Amino acid sequence: MTSTDLPLAMAVPETGRRVSTRIWQTAFASVEFKIGLAVFVVLLAAALLYPELSGIDPSKMNIRAKLTPPIFMGEGWSWAHPLGTDQLGRDMLARALVGLRYSLLIGVSTTVLMLLAGAMIGLFSGYFGGRTDTVLMRLTDAQLSIPMIILAITILGVSRPTIPSIILVLGLAGWPVYARVMRSTVMSERRKEYVRGAMVLGATDLRIMFTLLLPLVLPPMAFVAVLDIARMMIFESVLGFLGLGVQPPTPTFGNVIADGRKYLMNAWWIATMPGVFLVLTLTSINLMGAALERARNSIYGGA
Amino acid sequence: MFILRFLARRLGQGAIIIFLVSALIFTLLRVVPGDPVRLMVGGMAPDTLVEEIAAEMGLRDPIYVQFGRYMGKVLQGDLGESFVRPASGAAVGGASFDDATRGERAKVLDLIAETAPMTLQLAVLAMVFALMVGVPIGVWGGLYPGRLPDRLALYTSSLFVSLPNFWLGIVLALLLSVKLNLLPAIGYRGFSYTILPALVLAVEIAPFIIRTLTVSVAGVMGQTFIDIARVRGLSRNQIVFRHALKNSAVPLLNLLGVQFSMLLGGVLVIEFIFDYPGLGLLTINAVMQRDFPLIQGIAIVTAAVFVLINIAVDLLATAIDPRLDY
């Protein structure tokens, strides 16, 4: 964000949309992004279609087929259960894929929530400055110094966790970083010519904030937020593992793995196989996110 | 003189942060439903007894009164006593409400002091592992931006951040300790019990090291003083190790300060999986048992360490790179 090298080009800022298009194009040109996207699309399609098309209910028990190993692994495997079954004969593939749905749902909604909340707070804080700013920034300092997992388990530990409450708690714990980035960018932007020009022309504060600054500053932040989707999915699974996520019988990665941990010695696949799906999904999202982050950094000169 | 003024300012700010953390946790614990007294005395105790004990402990006073009383003690270095843990050792729930040992509960400060060295040992070992993996990959990637080593750095870090710690812990325990019988996994009976948890924690830390180093080494190598060093006839190794690495150390240090709380979050889950008796396991148990004084104590100590680490990081950074301002 140095304005010293290109005084003329910086006087007229690129619109958010043009920068976004360039970031997309640069990222899409990279191998990482394409690999990530391909894997992600396959997994997403599987998660959306397989449980419906196969007609297998992830919570339907079948005691006679209990503890079937995955295909080609050990005795008694069958094509009916490619990833085997758990101690109650429930199909592991269906459970993993339904878990993936919840994981993605919570990961994406949480990220959107904290991005928007953080952006709003940072926008007001950075634009108006003064006492509001001081209070808000000290609050984010304080929050950043408590591990968010302590916050999350403290709040979810007593109430029965539901999908909205999990999204809210994770979002609550994650907004400070976005507020900080937004605030510092807005602070440097608002001193620039075009903002002062708009002020001279009589634009109101709200108009400048929402029609000039927000469209300019939000997109580059949103690209990096892709990485946070993966982070939030991990947090969701950690909560599930501790018994504080979406509650059984709904299968989520966390509760399925926690469940399978008890049978680790004689049925290793219950705890490990769903994790493979989670890792694949997270890797694909992280590859896309990393490619987007690099593209953004190369366009903004590494800021 | 400058250093003194810097220290005074940062310690002042730190005190504000610690105060806010205490207030935040304190309020949160009392606003969220769930009565710790009920857990202490057990489900069988009559309601009147619950109320009696709660009133005796001051838990029915307004929150700001409780907070004032608590902070008064904290300033004198007294973090209070655990609600549920007896001084003798093992944690007990509230099985019987007329428990004779209820009088002598463990001091929060003692509990933290007992477990913190274990966590420190885990964290240091994990950091060593993470640096052993992260520094070569990160530096190599930074030296060849856009080429194969850089790609490799990107793929490794993307894969590592995608491994959930609890799952990796289970898989490694299954492979290394159940199947191959190489390392012990559960509990703590000697130094070897630290290795497996440290490996898992290292995988969580390494991607941040790799990413930061790749970016900063690539940035430093593109600067003019590196070209000049080449003209001065320094060998490539000398340039990389003396100039580039030294300058890339500052972003790495800053990262350690910022990521400290994330590191602690990882420690929490990992200690829980491996039943490793450190601060993380203590925290999880404290939260599960709604042990207010213990949770508050841990939060305050954590925030204080966070503040001190960040001050130390900034001091070290200015020592390495004198151009930086306090």
TrEMBL record, chain A:
<keyword id="KW-1003">Cell membrane</keyword>
<keyword id="KW-0812">Transmembrane</keyword>
<comment type="similarity">
    <text>Belongs to the binding-protein-dependent transport system permease family.</text>
</comment>
<dbReference type="InterPro" id="IPR000515">
    <property type="entry name" value="MetI-like"/>
</dbReference>
<keyword id="KW-0472">Membrane</keyword>
<dbReference type="Pfam" id="PF00528">
    <property type="entry name" value="BPD_transp_1"/>
</dbReference>
<keyword id="KW-1133">Transmembrane helix</keyword>
<keyword id="KW-0813">Transport</keyword>
<feature type="transmembrane region" description="Helical">
    <location>
        <begin position="267"/>
        <end position="288"/>
    </location>
</feature>
<feature type="transmembrane region" description="Helical">
    <location>
        <begin position="148"/>
        <end position="173"/>
    </location>
</feature>
<keyword id="KW-0653">Protein transport</keyword>
<dbReference type="InterPro" id="IPR035906">
    <property type="entry name" value="MetI-like_sf"/>
</dbReference>
<dbReference type="InterPro" id="IPR050366">
    <property type="entry name" value="BP-dependent_transpt_permease"/>
</dbReference>
<feature type="domain" description="ABC transmembrane type-1">
    <location>
        <begin position="100"/>
        <end position="289"/>
    </location>
</feature>
<protein>
    <submittedName>
        <fullName>Peptide/nickel transport system permease protein</fullName>
    </submittedName>
</protein>
<feature type="transmembrane region" description="Helical">
    <location>
        <begin position="102"/>
        <end position="128"/>
    </location>
</feature>
<feature type="transmembrane region" description="Helical">
    <location>
        <begin position="33"/>
        <end position="51"/>
    </location>
</feature>
<keyword id="KW-0571">Peptide transport</keyword>
TrEMBL record, chain B:
<dbReference type="InterPro" id="IPR000515">
    <property type="entry name" value="MetI-like"/>
</dbReference>
<feature type="transmembrane region" description="Helical">
    <location>
        <begin position="252"/>
        <end position="274"/>
    </location>
</feature>
<keyword id="KW-0472">Membrane</keyword>
<dbReference type="InterPro" id="IPR045621">
    <property type="entry name" value="BPD_transp_1_N"/>
</dbReference>
<comment type="similarity">
    <text>Belongs to the binding-protein-dependent transport system permease family.</text>
</comment>
<keyword id="KW-0812">Transmembrane</keyword>
<dbReference type="InterPro" id="IPR035906">
    <property type="entry name" value="MetI-like_sf"/>
</dbReference>
<keyword id="KW-0813">Transport</keyword>
<dbReference type="Pfam" id="PF00528">
    <property type="entry name" value="BPD_transp_1"/>
</dbReference>
<feature type="transmembrane region" description="Helical">
    <location>
        <begin position="294"/>
        <end position="317"/>
    </location>
</feature>
<feature type="transmembrane region" description="Helical">
    <location>
        <begin position="190"/>
        <end position="210"/>
    </location>
</feature>
<feature type="domain" description="ABC transmembrane type-1">
    <location>
        <begin position="116"/>
        <end position="317"/>
    </location>
</feature>
<feature type="transmembrane region" description="Helical">
    <location>
        <begin position="152"/>
        <end position="178"/>
    </location>
</feature>
<feature type="transmembrane region" description="Helical">
    <location>
        <begin position="12"/>
        <end position="32"/>
    </location>
</feature>
<protein>
    <submittedName>
        <fullName>ABC transporter permease</fullName>
    </submittedName>
</protein>
<feature type="transmembrane region" description="Helical">
    <location>
        <begin position="118"/>
        <end position="140"/>
    </location>
</feature>
<dbReference type="Pfam" id="PF19300">
    <property type="entry name" value="BPD_transp_1_N"/>
</dbReference>
<dbReference type="GO" id="GO:0055085">
    <property type="term" value="P:transmembrane transport"/>
</dbReference>
<dbReference type="GO" id="GO:0005886">
    <property type="term" value="C:plasma membrane"/>
</dbReference>
<keyword id="KW-1133">Transmembrane helix</keyword>
<keyword id="KW-1003">Cell membrane</keyword>
